[in-house]
Amino acid sequence: MMQTTEWTYRFLNASTFVLGNRKNAGKTTFMNLALSHIRKVEKPAFCTIGIDGESNDMIDGRAKPIINTQPGDGIVTTYPMLQKSNGQFKIQKVFPYHTVLGQIIIATTIREGSIELVGPENNTQLNTIIKFLNTELHFKTVIIDGAASRITPIGAVNNSNCFYLVNIDRRNLSKSMDNMKMLSMCSEFEQAKDLNSSINQVYKIKGALTPSKVHSIPKEYDTIIVNNPTSIFLTHKQLKELSKKFKIQTINTYQLNGFVVVLKDIEALEFNNLYRKNNINTELIINPYVN
Question: pTM for this structure?
């Protein structure tokens, strides 16, 4: 199990996405746990993609973990959400981004309370918000609660970090393992340094790398470049075969800090053995919420 100092140094001085393999994967619970460690060292800022922190899920009505904010924290939400909170806040910035729950703002917490986060609707807006948190408000540590089953927001922030949460049972074991192998492999690709060098040997993929585009890559090239790992829409098997034919590089990169796994009907030892058998290099963190 990860110790407090390990948690702290994984998140400090970085923008870290908390993503999951499906809705109710435990992202908000993990985010709250991370925040409790970070606050021992410095004040964090946090936001979401879409809506998070509401007491009951707006889609299926399930009870959801409450996001707690402490004095000095930076939060991204809307003014109506500040009014609903039992905390007290100072508005630092109002953005020209409108959602069904109000206009996006950045606030700092003055008095502790629970808060419902409301985030931007696209990656460009997210990038602008995080830059403001970093450069204008000097929050060096930012956590982004990502959308369910979507990793594409990682591409909005270059050199970001990521934790990927996976709920696993016997029914989705094979699919989950394949997905983890894929994500781990993508995170290890080299960053393209000089896009203009060896121009005759480097093939740039426009948009997403899909199975149909794989067949159209000219054989005379030895390197292919994609915009970022989240724009690769291949299975692990397809990507592994492609990597045998071409060197794959990405313009934007991210660091995969670990897979946070919650097991339902599988023993931890059995899963550990299976994980090692599949030669996945990313750190495995099983149920960090115990103790």
Answer: 0.83
